């Protein structure tokens, strides 16, 4: 395989233009290329009057070594294509089906990969299926009535389902998991371009349908997904996990439990702490959301003409303040909305969301400052959780249950906002004017003011007085880490901490990649699950007694409208 890097063309070019550029670079006659594909596409916007796409291209040819040699171009080289490969199955038989706790990106991708390889996983999700969850979230934004179990944070697809659907990640990927995740998304309805774009995104409106389609495949392959089913206890015996217990009182036996809860599963963290599962504090970041006119960001990033061709622009900003703290933009949502992302009564958190078209009037992002265990005020592994809760309680009080907002100029001056300027809010959920200086500590506020002034020098108008701030952005990443060894297990054998909630990911793609890793580890150890052997053992009573009979009965009865149970794979559909 030949890899061509740094291949540049004006943004307004055709596929034929790109092919001619490849032919010229390799000195191949027109129309004689065997095959080629785009590996990566990014935008070079350093010169606004001459915007360009930069490509990495893979080419298959019969004379590859000769073509590389004659090209005499340092960005043309021979490479070996990395193709993701699920491991050959292990030999240890599974006595029970693997249980996955949580149906966010980590749990969903882990479940899909296990289902595709014959392991028939059971996924337990405390929230609702994405269809019902979408209705529930819309009702919350309209009425303010919160369902603590099904909201922006909890439910099928995880918190990422109500975001911009950004899929870029900085995780190193020597075995092709990143590309595999993107390819799976395209299988279920995402645009093929996300596989090679430098900043791929799906959008909330498209992502929800993709999540539903992934669930349907898991079910068709013999997996099971139960909604409105929160795990309230782990059964651990002699250092090994034996079962999980749900809020309905059902005990589901399994020697393999994937703990893929999200970073907002605070009651689950408390249960794990009480069970003696090792946990530790982890730094994260807190701050405020900011809204600007999207047109302003487009002009700054692409120039007047480029904005017409490249759509809604994004940005990434960082600054080290004199306070000793760093501030940076996070979860930037072009053409999007600031949303009420609360999951606990009496507490309020915000997030950002964009639809696929990114056609809203405003750009928004979180401006966040890193906080460490020294800021949390306690030694408990859950001190970071309590720190988040204190901020969210203040935010709720400041807005009287609505999203507290303030113009940046008033924030810098320390006074409450009375009216909007030219920037008009685009928000999901009710909002109210407040003094956000009362929300965050003074050194964090000073860091934000200093950072805003610095960002205004990078993006003209970023520090405009009528930019709209909203708080509090507190759910940037997990406040805890659940340690795991090189085999991805906790100290409790058979328990696999996974994804963002466990402290091993920071977004949709990295969480999905971690889900693949855990699925691979399970696959390497265990043989695919044999449902017929299990059923025979259950019917005969088996050595596992009443516990196993309970799960067998659960497989045959659909007792809950929100529980999706697909028929036995051997049945005629």
Secondary-structure map:
Elements: E1 2-10, H1 15-26, E2 35-44, E3 52-60, H2 64-71, E4 76-78, E5 99-101, H3 105-116, E6 122-124, H4 130-143, H5 177-187, H6 204-220, E7 224-226, E8 231-237, E9 240-246, E10 251-253, E11 257-259, H7 266-274, E12 280-281, E13 284-293, H8 294-310, E14 318-320, E15 326-333, E16 337-340, E17 350-353, E18 362-371, H9 373-376, H10 383-398, E19 403-407, H11 408-413, E20 427-428, E21 431-433, H12 442-458, E22 468-473, E23 480-481, E24 495-497, H13 508-525, H14 531-539, H15 545-556, E25 563-565
Parallel strand pairs: 5-6, 5-11, 6-7, 11-24, 16-20, 19-21
Antiparallel strand pairs: 1-3, 1-4, 2-3, 7-25, 8-9, 9-10, 12-23, 13-18, 13-22, 14-15, 15-18, 16-17, 19-22
Pick out the low-confidence regions: 540-573
Q: What percent of residues adopt helix (DSSP H or I)?
A: 25-40%
CATH superfamily placement of the largest domain: FAD/NAD(P)-binding domain
CATH fold-level label of the largest domain: FAD/NAD(P)-binding domain
Number of helices, where a helix is a run of at least 4 consecutive DSSP H or I residues? 15
Largest sheet, in brief, is: 7 strands, mixed
* Mean pLDDT, all residues: 91
Q: What's the CATH C level of the largest domain?
A: Alpha Beta
Secondary structure class reads: alpha+beta
| CATH architecture grouping of the largest domain | 3-Layer(bba) Sandwich
Write up this protein.
There is one protein chain. Strand 8 (231-237) and strand 9 (240-246) form a beta hairpin. The chain has helices at 15-26, 64-71, 105-116, 130-143, 177-187, 204-220, 266-274, 294-310, 373-376, 383-398, 408-413, 442-458, 508-525, 531-539, 545-556, and strands spanning 2-10, 35-44, 52-60, 76-78, 99-101, 122-124, 224-226, 231-237, 240-246, 251-253, 257-259, 280-281, 284-293, 318-320, 326-333, 337-340, 350-353, 362-371, 403-407, 427-428, 431-433, 468-473, 480-481, 495-497, 563-565. Strands 14-15-18-13-22-19-21 form a seven-stranded mixed sheet. With 573 residues, the protein is of the alpha+beta class. Residues 540-573 have low confidence and may be disordered. It folds into three domains: 2-78, 2-Layer Sandwich (Alpha-Beta Plaits), CATH 3.30.70.2700; 99-280 and 481-565, FAD/NAD(P)-binding domain (3-Layer(bba) Sandwich), CATH 3.50.50.60; 283-473, no CATH class. The chain has 15 helices and 25 strands. The two termini are 43 Å apart. 32% of the residues lie in helices and 22% in strands. It is globular.
């Amino acid at each position: 395989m030949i890899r061509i890097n740094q291949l540049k063309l004006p943004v307004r070019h055709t596929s034929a233009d790109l092919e001619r550029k490849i032919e010229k670079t390799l000195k191949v006659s027109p129309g004689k290329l065997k095959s080629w594909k785009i590996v990566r596409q990014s935008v070079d916007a350093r010169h606004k009057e001459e915007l360009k796409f930069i490509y990495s291209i893979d080419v298959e040819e019969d004379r590859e070594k000769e073509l590389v040699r004659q090209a005499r171009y340092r960005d043309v080289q021979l490479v070996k294509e990395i193709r993701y490969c699920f491991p050959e199955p292990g030999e240890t038989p599974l006595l029970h089906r693997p249980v996955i706790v949580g149906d966010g990106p980590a749990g969903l991708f882990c479940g899909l990969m296990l289902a595709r390889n014959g392991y028939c996983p059971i996924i337990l999700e405390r929230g609702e299926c994405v269809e019902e969850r979408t209705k529930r979230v819309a009702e919350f934004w309209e009425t303010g009535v919160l369902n603590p179990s099904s909201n922006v944070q909890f439910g099928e697809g995880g918190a990422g389902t109500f975001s911009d659907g950004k899929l870029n990640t900085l995780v190193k990927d020597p075995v092709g998991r990143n590309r595999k995740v993107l390819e799976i998304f395209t299988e279920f309805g995402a645009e093929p371009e996300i596989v090679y774009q430098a900043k791929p995104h799906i959008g909330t409106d498209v992502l929800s349908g993709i999540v539903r389609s992934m669930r349907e495949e898991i079910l068709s392959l013999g997996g099971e997904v139960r909604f409105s089913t929160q795990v309230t206890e782990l059964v651990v015996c002699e250092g090994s996990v034996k079962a999980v217990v749900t809020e309905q009182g059902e005990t589901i036996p399994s020697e393999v439990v994937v703990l893929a809860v999200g970073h907002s599963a605070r009651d689950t963290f408390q249960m794990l702490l009480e069970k003696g599962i090792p946990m530790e504090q982890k730094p994260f970041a807190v701050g405020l959301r900011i809204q600007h006119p999207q047109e302003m960001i487009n002009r700054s990033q692409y120039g007047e003409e480029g904005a017409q061709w490249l759509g809604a622009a994004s940005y990434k900003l960082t600054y080290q303040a004199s306070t000793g703290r760093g501030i940076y933009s996070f979860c930037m949502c072009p053409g999007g909305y600031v949303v009420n992302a609360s999951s606990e009564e009496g507490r309020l958190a915000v997030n950002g969301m964009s639809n696929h078209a990114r056609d809203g009037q405003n750009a928004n992002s979180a401006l966040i400052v890193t906080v460490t265990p020294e800021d949390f005020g306690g030694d408990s592994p859950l001190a970071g959780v309590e720190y988040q809760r204190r901020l969210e309680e203040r935010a709720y009080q400041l807005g009287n249950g609505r999203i507290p907002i303030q113009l940046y100029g008033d924030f810098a001056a320390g006074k409450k906002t009375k009216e909007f300027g030219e920037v008009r809010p685009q928000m999901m959920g009710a909002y109210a004017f407040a003094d956000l200086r009362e929300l965050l500590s003074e050194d964090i506020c000073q860091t934000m003011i200093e950072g805003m002034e610095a960002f205004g020098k990078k993006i003209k108008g970023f520090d405009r007085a009528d930019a709209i701030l909203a708080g509090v952005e507190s759910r940037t990443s997990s406040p805890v880490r659940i340690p795991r060894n090189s085999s991805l297990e906790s100290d409790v054998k058979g328990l696999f901490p996974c994804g963002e909630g466990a402290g091993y990911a920071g977004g949709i793609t990295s969480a999905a990649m971690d889900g693949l890793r855990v699925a691979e580890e399970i696959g390497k150890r265990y043989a695919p699950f044999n449902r017929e052997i299990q059923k025979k053992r259950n019917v005969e009573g088996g050595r596992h007694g009443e516990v196993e009979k309970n799960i067998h009965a659960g497989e045959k009865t659909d007792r809950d409208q929100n529980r999706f149970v697909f028929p036995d794979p051997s049945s005629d559909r």
